[in-house]
């Protein structure tokens, strides 16, 4: 029953395109069932390609109506559509104008790649390979063209007609139609093409660039959503100003449009001059969006805007270079958010995210370098490794050469590569030239998968007042890369004296005094650093600000406790507290596995009390410090994970802390109550986070009524949802009452309804699987909507480890059933959701066998999408 094995694309096989397309004219006549697309391509043979290379245009599911070359109809024996849907022109000229007319059906496009409809409106998603589902084209990022787009549609159904670039005319057409033309003066690859049309309304604003260019800003939404665009617009204007100030980069068109759509595979897309966004990253009001949602909007709006230079003006030669634009743009949005709020808290959250998603990926069957070597389905490589680890690697370079050289490097990178499709080497070369520092070894970070492990050993000689720090690195093997080499690891560090004060950090051979944070560069597998004139035996503070994406191991518990209180670096203070708690909790898990009572370390309650006492200075930081390490973080540190034991231990510990610190938690909870109107500044967000962290402990200790009272009184989504998610775990009638009230109030709001599904999917209930099956059958559940599918299925598999990994294997079966049902509808989302089953090697053999059985069942499904095939088959290797 097996269909052909999908082909593997390899980085080493890159060849330049046979033909280039200088100009493209597209004409759309929109219709849900039969849209016509006429494309005129000015083609010419690429001087860099073989002179006899065939003219082949990608296509997928296109119905060809006619093809002409320089005006003459091409007979069927000169153009052939292959098995894969691509069009090959036999006997091609060296240059010419190829015109094709194709028919497509956007209303039946459930994959949401190419041109599709959502709520009766038209949207496109072309990255990575969606343009070939719209017209025949060399659909690869190294073919850059200037686009002119004319859209014709019914005036009543589609009053708004948008595409990339600047508006260039509009008018009435035949019947009840009208048309609009858009011209994008900047050459771009096909993945940045966009079209949006339909009955939309806009929120408008303006931005004046620093050289005086007036830019019209618009956010396009469905009628009724206009009053929830303010934060996205404000984030956009701040992003535009920040990129001018920090990187000297100005916007380059007369208009910048954002369109929001509720059916969208990813977060958002940076199409030139016409970003398309998941509504989740546009719409927000205090009643309907959490503080996390507000921060997500700011980040994603900035990210897509920053792509205008890092991605659009300078793009990728091929998809293996994806991190060239994604890693760099994530780095830029992280820096933006750090500048907008608390840098330390932002760093802590980013590291939390990296560890929750990227570290496990690096330790699993899909582990791949930041620049992968091969893929079957490129959609599967929009990963935490390419994005978040890619950003960490850019940060390594930033740390290594310093901010001033980094800025010069960016200027050089853009000046030299503007309007070109380039590689990661081009980026590193610019940084190297601008800094004069040899960065060749840093390429290892792009090409080697796996998370390096870092260990320290030290020795103090009181006589000589000399301190020697020895650092060692090693990286465990990953699929296809059995042997690893050492990588350059910048280790930002300091030394603390017995009272916590900073000690000098002058290395042997240096003359000038050094104090505060300095950065050591570990280049070999093992290296020693000798510090002179150290007056007392120091405690080393390593990896300040998380200066490299590595696992620092084996720091003794006494040092962790000391650093958590005394270090000057907020990241290390937070980190040391987390590592201390993690080491205690892992011991408790081991005790629980032996059937012993887990015991309690009073230091954990002390830490909570100390955090609360000092919380006023920085409530957001206190909230981070108060949160115990997550279940995934703990599982990731066990040779064989035990998700059920981890969950029980963590819950039990929360209850114990809640009991022991009850009065202090209650006092903090009371004093943090909001007075006055809802505000979303950093301090207010921090206070809410801290207050809800306190609530969590108090409810764990038995006070479910407090959660119900907060839920009933809440005037913002953050407080409402925090209370509801705690109630969802509680065995009290208030649970059903609150869930029903929430559903009744929000049933008309898709984004909030997603939260209602997620909370239940993550709930710790004895009947969790049965509840999942009921939610799956709920009239409001819709497998076709990616947000809804993620809210239920994704939240369960990734956010409810204790029940996903239920001994019975029912959790695995539920996920596999959902993936099999979803795959024919939207293979991209199905492939994403299957991920957690790939982690079977980390589970006990009994669980692993059940997981493999479900992976095999998915793999045996006929006509599986390429993407799901790749994930399931690689997981089983
Ligand atoms: N370039 C987009 C972003 O990160 C993501 C688009 C990914 N699309 C996909 N089908 N994989 O901003
Ligand atoms: Zn991006």
Automatic annotation (TrEMBL):
Q: Where is the Aminopeptidase N-like N-terminal domain?
A: 109-192
**Domain named Peptidase M1 alanyl aminopeptidase C-terminal: residues:** 558-876
User: Which reaction(s) are listed as its catalytic activity?
Assistant: Release of an N-terminal amino acid, Xaa-|-Yaa- from a peptide, amide or arylamide. Xaa is preferably Ala, but may be most amino acids including Pro (slow action). When a terminal hydrophobic residue is followed by a prolyl residue, the two may be released as an intact Xaa-Pro dipeptide
First-tier enzyme category under EC = hydrolase
Record-linked SUPFAM superfamilies:
Leukotriene A4 hydrolase N-terminal domain, Metalloproteases ('zincins'), catalytic domain
What molecular function terms (GO) are annotated for this protein? alanyl aminopeptidase activity; metallopeptidase activity; zinc ion binding
GO annotation (BP), single: proteolysis
User: Does the record's keyword annotation contain Iron?
Assistant: no
InterPro entries, alphabetically? Aminopeptidase_N-like_N (IPR045357), Aminopeptidase_N-like_N_sf (IPR042097), PepN_Ig-like_sf (IPR038438), Peptidase_M1 (IPR001930), Peptidase_M1_dom (IPR014782), Peptidase_M1_pepN (IPR012779), Peptidase_M1_pepN_C (IPR024601), Peptidase_M1_pepN_C_sf (IPR037144)
In the record, the note on similarity to other proteins reads:
Belongs to the peptidase M1 family.
- Report what the protein is called: Aminopeptidase N
Task: Give the species this sequence originates from.
Answer: Roseicella frigidaeris
């Amino acid at each position: 029953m097996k269909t052909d094995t999908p082909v593997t694309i390899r980085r080493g096989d890159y060849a330049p395109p046979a033909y280039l397309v200088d100009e493209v004219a597209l004409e759309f006549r929109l219709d849900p069932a039969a849209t016509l697309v006429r494309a005129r391509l000015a083609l010419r043979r690429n001087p860099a390609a073989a002179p006899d290379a065939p003219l082949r245009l990608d296509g997928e599911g296109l119905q060809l109506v006619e093809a002409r070359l320089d005006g003459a109809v091409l007979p069927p024996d000169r153009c052939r559509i292959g098995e894969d849907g691509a069009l090959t022109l036999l006997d091609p000229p060296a240059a010419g104008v190829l015109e094709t007319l194709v028919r497509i059906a956007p209303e039946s496009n459930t994959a949401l790649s190419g041109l599709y409809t959502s709520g009766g409106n038209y949207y496109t998603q072309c990255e990575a390979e969606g343009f070939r589902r719209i017209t025949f084209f060399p659909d690869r990022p190294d073919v850059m063209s200037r686009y002119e787009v004319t859209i014709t549609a019914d005036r009543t159904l589609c009053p708004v007609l948008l595409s990339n670039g600047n508006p260039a005319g509009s008018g009435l057409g035949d019947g009840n139609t009208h048309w609009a033309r858009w011209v994008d003066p900047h050459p771009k690859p096909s993945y940045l093409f966009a079209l949006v049309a339909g009955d939309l309304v806009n929120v408008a604003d303006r931005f004046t660039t620093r050289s005086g260019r007036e830019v019209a800003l618009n956010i396009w939404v469905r009628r009724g959503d206009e009053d929830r665009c303010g934060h996205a617009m404000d984030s956009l204007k701040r992003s535009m100003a920040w990129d001018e100030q920090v990187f000297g980069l100005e916007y380059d068109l007369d208009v910048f449009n954002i369109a929001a759509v509720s059916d969208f595979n990813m977060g958002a897309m940076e199409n030139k001059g016409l970003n398309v966004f998941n509504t989740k990253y546009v719409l927000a009001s205090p009643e309907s969006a959490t503080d996390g949602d507000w921060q997500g909007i700011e980040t994603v709006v900035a990210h897509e805007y920053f792509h205008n230079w890092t991605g659009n003006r300078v793009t990728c030669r091929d998809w293996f270079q994806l991190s060239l634009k994604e890693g760099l743009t994530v780095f830029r949005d992280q820096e933006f958010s750090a500048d907008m709020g608390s840098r330390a808290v932002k760093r802590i959250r980013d590291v939390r995210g990296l560890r929750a998603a990227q570290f496990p990926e690096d330790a699993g069957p899909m582990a791949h370098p930041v620049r992968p070597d091969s893929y079957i389905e490129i959609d599967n490589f929009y990963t935490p490794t390419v994005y978040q680890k890619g950003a960490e690697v850019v940060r390594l370079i930033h740390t290594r050469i310093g901010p001033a050289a980094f800025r010069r490097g960016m200027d050089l990178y853009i000046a030299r590569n503007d309007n070109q499709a380039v590689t990661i080497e081009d980026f590193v070369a610019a940084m190297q030239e601008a800094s004069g520092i040899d960065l060749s070894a840093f390429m290892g970070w792009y090409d080697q998968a796996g998370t390096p492990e870092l260990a320290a050993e030290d020795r103090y000689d009181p006589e000589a007042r000399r301190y020697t720090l020895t650092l060692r690195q090693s990286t465990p093997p990953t699929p296809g890369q059995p042997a690893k080499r050492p990588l350059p690891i910048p280790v930002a560090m300091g030394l603390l004296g017995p009272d916590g004060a900073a000690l000098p950090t002058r290395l042997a051979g240096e003359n000038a005094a050094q104090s505060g944070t300095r950065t050591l560069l570990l280049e070999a597998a093992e290296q020693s650093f000798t510090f002179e004139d150290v007056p007392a035996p120091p405690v080393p503070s390593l990896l300040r600000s998380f200066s490299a994406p590595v696992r620092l191991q084996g720091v003794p518990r006494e040092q962790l406790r000391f650093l958590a209180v005394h270090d000057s670096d907020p990241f290390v203070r937070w980190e040391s507290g987390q590592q201390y708690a993690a080491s205690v909790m892992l011991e408790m898990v081991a005790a629980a596995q032996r059937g012993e009572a887990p015991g309690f370390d009073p230091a954990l309650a002390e830490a909570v009390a100390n955090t609360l006492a000092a919380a006023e200075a920085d409530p957001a930081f206190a909230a981070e410090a108060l949160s115990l390490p997550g279940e995934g973080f703990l599982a990731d540190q066990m040779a064989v994970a035990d998700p059920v034991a981890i969950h029980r231990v963590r819950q039990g510990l929360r209850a114990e802390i809640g009991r022991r610190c009850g009065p202090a938690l209650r006092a903090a909870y009371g004093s943090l109550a909001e007075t006055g109107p809802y505000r979303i500044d950093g301090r207010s967000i921090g206070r809410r986070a801290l207050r809800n962290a306190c609530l969590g402990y108090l409810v764990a200790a038995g006070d479910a009524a407090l959660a119900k009272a907060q839920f009933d009184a809440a005037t913002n989504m953050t407080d409402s949802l925090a209370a509801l998610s705690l109630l969802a775990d509680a065995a009290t009638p208030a649970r059903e009452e609150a869930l029903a009230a929430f559903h009744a109030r929000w049933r008309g709001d898709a984004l909030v309804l997603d939260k209602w599904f997620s909370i239940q999917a993550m709930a710790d209930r004895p009947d969790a699987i049965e509840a999942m099956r009921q939610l799956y059958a709920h009239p409001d559940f819709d497998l076709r909507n990616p947000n809804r599918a993620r809210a239920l299925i994704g939240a369960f598999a990734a956010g409810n480890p204790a029940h996903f990994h239920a001994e019975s294997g029912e959790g695995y079966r539920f996920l596999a059933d959902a993936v099999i049902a979803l795959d024919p509808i939207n293979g991209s989302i199905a492939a994403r959701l299957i991920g957690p089953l790939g982690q079977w090697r980390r589970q006990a053999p009994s669980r692993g066998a059940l997981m493999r059985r479900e992976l095999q069942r998915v793999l045996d499904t006929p006509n599986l999408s390429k993407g799901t095939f790749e994930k399931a088959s690689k997981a089983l290797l």
